[in-house]
Amino acid sequence: MRWQLRIDPTACTGHGLCADLLPERIELDEWGFPIIHGDVGASLAGHARRAVRACPALALRLETKPRETTRRERS
Length: 75
What we know:
With 75 residues, the chain is an alpha+beta fold.
């Protein structure tokens, strides 16, 4: 299973804790706001959950990534 991290840009205040806790997927831009790179796999899911819980602005979410359907499944 794969997950996606989502940032609520209006709620984020740029504390940077998420990037400290999950540097494999989150970096900070020049103003200190997070940029997410890629999906979260099973090996990083625990770290991603910890980053979500630690966000002081409650601006970070971890969502299940929808399964991609193949062309054959759509027909």
